[in-house]
Design brief:
Length: 157
């Protein structure tokens, strides 16, 4: 039995939401990154656009595309990124985080996530789930969440 490659942790800032419908140096860079790293079995996205009281985790089977921006051309609001969710991994993630985390189905996959992933993985066939930022917690707390949340490594993904 071979050990799967350890997935890298990436920070990918989306810049302008218009990148989702444009072909430019940023979007080509995202595509290049996707081609250089192992294809993920699932993606946990931590989004600064989902800013909540407490830590929230989405565990739905079919997360909706959230258009949490306004004032952009209509073409941007026509982008859909209908990925499967990762409910099992969300439950595992919740157990790994060393602080209270609640499941929240009021959100989905926001533009901070889908505007990048629609360029990196346009097939939309990699499960995605999202973790919010807790507006009441500082950087150190969020850093510790990341350290405790080695879901992929622990589960062999």
């Amino acid at each position: 039995m071979t050990t799967p490659a350890k997935a890298p942790l990436l920070f990918v800032g989306h810049g302008s939401p218009l990148n989702a419908i444009e072909n430019n140096q940023y979007t080509r860079g995202w595509q290049e990154i996707a081609g250089k790293i192992p294809r993920p079995a699932a993606i946990l996205a931590v989004s600064a656009h989902w800013y909540t009281d407490g830590s929230k985790l989405n565990d739905v089977k079919e997360p909706r595309t959230v258009y949490d921006m306004c004032g952009f051309p209509d073409d941007l609001y026509k982008v859909t990124y209908n990925v499967p969710g990762a409910p099992e991994l969300a439950r595992i993630t919740k157990d790994l985080i060393s602080r209270k985390v609640e499941f929240d189905h009021s959100w989905g996959i926001d533009h901070g996530t889908w505007s990048v992933l629609c360029k990196m993985y346009p097939e939309a066939n990699i499960p995605v789930y999202q973790l919010s930022l807790d507006r009441n917690a500082g950087a150190e707390v969020h850093f510790q969440i990341g350290l405790n949340c080695g879901v992929c490594e622990r589960q062999g993904y």
